[in-house]
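Sequence only, no structure available. Ideas?
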Amino acid sequence: MKNVFIHVVRVVDAKEVVIFSNLPDIYKADVPSCKTRREYKKGISSKQYKRQGRLKVSDGYIYLCTPDTSISNTEFDILLNKYILLYNAFCQNYERMKAIEDEENKRFKHNITTFASHISGELYGLIPQDIFMTRGYDNLHNKVKNIVSKNNSNTASTIINTIKYSKQISTEIDAYEYLSGNAQILVQKHALHKILMLSLSLYSEAFEKKEVKIIVEDSNISIDLDYKSFTVILNNILSNIQKYILSESELRFAFKVIDNKVHMFITMYSLRIEDSERNKIFESGYSGLWASKIKLNGTGMGLYIVKILLEQNKGSISIVSNHNESKEYNNIPYDHTTINIIL
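Reply:
I predicted one. Tokens follow.
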């Protein structure tokens, strides 16, 4: 929002820690002298009148100011209340986030931040931020409704992608809970085909953009597993596949029972995995050689999470990249690849 500045401070061990601030230097001298929720005063350095307010919260304070005279007292109060809600939400998670110091957990935090950014990008790509300066809920609602009604296709894509990124955030949180031992495996019987289709539907647009033909063989296999953790497994695998599969190719899912074990076979032409890294790709923090070379590498956590959670479900995974059956695209090798999930 233009010409609205926020300065959020938390007091930790008697020291002020700035949580967030977009406050220009010229206004910083006004923060200590502001003692009320809303006032209209001349700035010490700017020599400019502006509306400002400072509100004490549980263990810090929020300072808000704007030189924009078109913003009413009511709008200013609404803005301040919104930032209070955000601050309270932050504080609820602060102690937990403060403990995340090791490298793996930093990667989880990075992924969640990235997906949250994608959600904002999707929503604001459809509804411009300036629309939210509209006064009155009815006016705002009508403007948003008009944008949506005139952009049916974009709205549908935004909804699908927002659901996908929201699910990916949930997946990251669930993965953290399982790996840290804060969640238990609860085994129940589930239809494998149904679980796959629910996860696969979230990636339909990504595969469509790459012109990937998806074939899922019919199956009535039900199996005992933990639904939530298996959804995390599938989402991590599908997230990798959508990045590394060859465009204009085929992605096939098949199910078989072999020696009383259920096998889910996923076959495709995917970015080459070198023989030297077939085991390394399941290690925490490892990114494939070709993925790194073409700058499509992620945090290196996906397959590590898959392996750990499959083991917790008494399952396993193997990935075979056949160099003798390969294709090239822009001088990049894609091998016929088979992922075998065994449950």
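The chain has a mean pLDDT of 86.
Hope that gets you unstuck.
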